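Here is one chain, start to finish.
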Amino acid sequence: MSFFHGGGRARVFWRLPEWMICKPHCIVYSSVTGNTQTLARFLAERLEIPLFSIAEAPNPENYACLILGFWVIRGMPDPRMLRFMQTVRGKTVFFFCTHAAWPDSEHIQHLRDAVSHLLQDQNNELLGFFSCQGRVHFSGHSAHHPMTPERKHRLEEAALHPNAEDCARALAALAQSLGMQ
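Its structure:
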């Protein structure tokens, strides 16, 4: 099984590693605004693997490799994905998330570490992680997060994502984690 990625004239051809062809794998995602769904669909199409929303999540026991996508709330995966992650044991896992924080922020580093520990504590092998900004379902005023000029700027920037470049970066991160050529 193989796939290619590219836009315009340049195309890059990648081949799935043999170990992945022989094992069942899928993408499970949770999305509210469509950000995580956009990345999940892009990856599933390029890899030609099954895609499930969290509402239709399969039994993780039926898959050797899981690619998990989620949106971030209060520094952790959304509650539905967090519950699903707690059922994933002894698998190979790559995870990705969408959020309104700056991608290189301490907030996202803490999230990556917390999810990594959760999954590793359940005897999963972690392949990698990808993080992408995304628009927020925003209801207005928040006492916990007042609207400062910096926050307004960050939310405006987040609303521009995920875009085609983010999709390509997610695919590259996953391909590198999978050892694709």
